[in-house]
Amino acid sequence: MNIQAIPTPSLGDTTYVVSHGNATIVVDPQRDIERFLESAEGSTITHVAETHIHNDYVSGGRDLALREGADLVLPAGSGVGFAFVPAFHDEEIKGEAGLSIRPLHTPGHTPEHMSYLVLLDGRPYAVFTGGSLLVGSAGRSDLLGIEFARQLAILQFGSLERLAELPDEIGVFPTHGPGSFCSATPTTDQASSTIGREKAENPLYRFSNAEAFADSQLAGLLPYPSYYREMAPINRSDPTAIARTGVRELQPDEGAELMGEVSILDGRPRQDFAAGHLPGSVGIELGDSFAPWAGWLLPFNAAVVLVLNPDQSAEDAVIELARIGFTEVRGVMRGVIAWSDSGRPLVAHQAVTADDLKRRLATGDDVQVVDVRDPQEWRDGHIEGSIHRYVPDLRSGIGELDPD
Q1: Rounded average pLDDT over 102-111
Q2: How many Cβ atoms are within 10 Å of 176's Cβ, its own excluded?
């Protein structure tokens, strides 16, 4: 059996392409399905399996299955509005070339959640755990609302116990990993593990009862992106696949005409943004955290104009945004020099080093320090006298800051 892990670093997620002979199973694909088709080239995709209704991206599973004539496998309780093969606990789904899938009901991250034990010629080989057992952690239980979080955390304890009954040598391949907001506590940097290693090293296996486990899971939860609430309804009704497309390049006059209709999303490096950017634009570097922060800081599926340097891929940015439901990219402006040369204004701010700030504070300069890191980073340590305001909360005001 060959297991290809295809990561999506900006979401902290991994899709798996599992092959043996001429048969392939794809687990938890995002909506840009071409990369999974390329990985499976030369074999037949017989099954596309979704572990749960995803909250952090739009799925490509339905359209991938339709395109390939494959069976779409979803948890029996998923409640989607299109055809699928229902996965029931411990009812084996036969594949081809000796591959088969044994669903294991592992609620906790979501109520319907299934893990998929893949067997080769009847022998268990690997378990794809989605948002249940993660490497060094487990999926968070509050994404459906804090009122359901404790009971789901208690169910998650039982799910981890269920998975622990598998043989120690079984490989563990979770969907969520480093960088994902779907983890209740930080995961390790490893993408995969084994049942035996997790039982020995995952701190969550040290809890002997569900209540203590739930206490630990709920104690350190961090905020998660606001766009999450839009994903499950899309994934239950009409999750469409997308392909790479060209992006229209805009001249300053064209960009100016769109101002007021669009959100300006500047993906250049932060130093470039500081040196000069379009008024009202939001700066999020195009990189591993681009998509979730864009989804958190912009209105959902806002019409967008990108600002990128010539060496940055507008197509990559469009795909990143489309994965989380942003499909209205009107075009890209290449840098801001042409904008400035046309006589239009830029906004700039000075970037200072930690040493610069230390000197200003030591000399009694009248400066306010706003710490915009996440709550756990703030608790771990912060500059004395600083004001904490997590980046997403800045939109609702800056409260105690002196506007002068």
Answers
A1: 98
A2: 29
